[in-house]
Amino acid sequence: MNYSPTKMKELLEKYGFNFKKNFGQNFIIDENVITNIIRKADVDKNTLVLEIGPGAGSLTYKLSEYAKDVVCYEIDKKLQPILEETLTSCANVEVIYQDFLKSNVMDILKKYDYNKLYVVANLPYYITTPIIVKLIEDHIPVEKIVVMVQKEVGNRFKATPGSKEYGSLTVFLDYYFDIKKIIDVSKNVFLPKPNVDSIVVQFTKKEQPLKAKSEKHFFQLVRDSFKQKRKTLRNNLKQYNLNIIENVLKQYGHDLTVRAENISLEEFIRISNALTEENHDSD
Ligand code: SAM
User: Which domains does the chain have, with CATH numbers?
Assistant: First the structure.
């Protein structure tokens, strides 16, 4: 595959391809960036890679060199003849032309034999969060997720308590993953050039030392706590047992006037566990 911007333009023109903004189409045209992502992700011949949105195949082509197998989901069928050309020599790649958000991934993965499953992708920006949430909610046994995202979205993923980006999504992600930025990417390496810079973020499955006794209860509590971001926990959590919540908050130097944006993952888990224990005690 030839990664020069001119060659990419020629290839797309050959098939009369027009970029679709509503599909978040910004293709990478810099081979160094691609190789850097794959090396940092540590993809090897034991790895099955799931790629969401192969586009014209720039990342897919390189992934095929490093990985055991690559399974891709691409929503835009207009890319099929282009991908057939760029991936013609890549026998270990399967492309499924389907909306990833509506797909049954586990059904496809069943066919594959693998030691490790990674997601490596330059994500369509308009659905970055729904994609990550689907990976969690569908219980896809992914060990590592390495994705290119818009810088500000990436910063929200790894926000810490007290910062303005910290929200229920951060707590949700923090429950499952260690999250870190691994590469800064300039907007100049994409065709067409987006308005904002990107970062590559790595999510590694966490062995959570402290588990929620009921994940369902824990996530509901977190969502309720952030329901009105500017309000205190006393106001957002009226329907819960506030005495129990207050007892846990005290151990962290807080009281019921604290806002959710200042509560850490551990504190949320402890509150949820104290509340669920109380429910069981009174059963
Ligand atoms: N991986 C390519 C690259 O880096 O050059 C393309 C990345 S581009 C940012 C995102 C890709 O995701 C596009 O090819 C777009 O058509 C595809 N896409 C958008 N929404 C999708 C969805 N719901 N399911 C699968 N693919 C989708």
Answer: 5-205 (3.40.50.150), 215-282 (1.10.8.100)
Residue 117: closest CA among 53, 188, 68: 68
Cα 258 to ligand 1 centre (Å): 41
Per-residue model confidence (pLDDT) at position 110: 94
The 10s digit of each residue's pLDDT in 121-145 is: 999 999 999 999 999 989 999 999 9
* CA pair distance 222, 170, nearest whole angstrom: 10
pLDDT surpasses 60 at 282: no
**Cα gap 112→110, rounded to integer Å:** 5
From the CA of 193, how far away is ligand 1's center (Å)? Answer: 15
pLDDT in tens, 12-26: 999 999 999 999 999
CA–CA dist 130, 2 (Å, integer): 32
Long-range contacts of 245-250 (CB under 8 A, 24+ apart): 245/271, 245/274, 245/275, 247/274, 248/274
Which atom belonging to ligand 1 lies closest to the Cα atom of 53? Answer: 12
DSSP label at 114? -
Structure tokens belonging to residue 65: 């060199």
- Look-up: residue for tokens 């490093």? 66
DSSP assignments along 118-177, one per residue: EEEEE--GGGHHHHHHHHHHTT---SEEEEEEEHHHHHHHT--TTSTT--HHHHHHHHHE
Ligand 1 atom nearest to 55, measured from its CA: 14
Ligand 1, pocket residues at CB < 6 Å:
23-28, 52-55, 58-59, 73-76, 99-101, 122, 124, 127
Q: Please give the single-letter amino acid code of residue 199.
A: I
What's the CA gap between 26 and 228, in Å, rounded? 35
Q: What is the CA radius of gyration of the chain?
A: 22
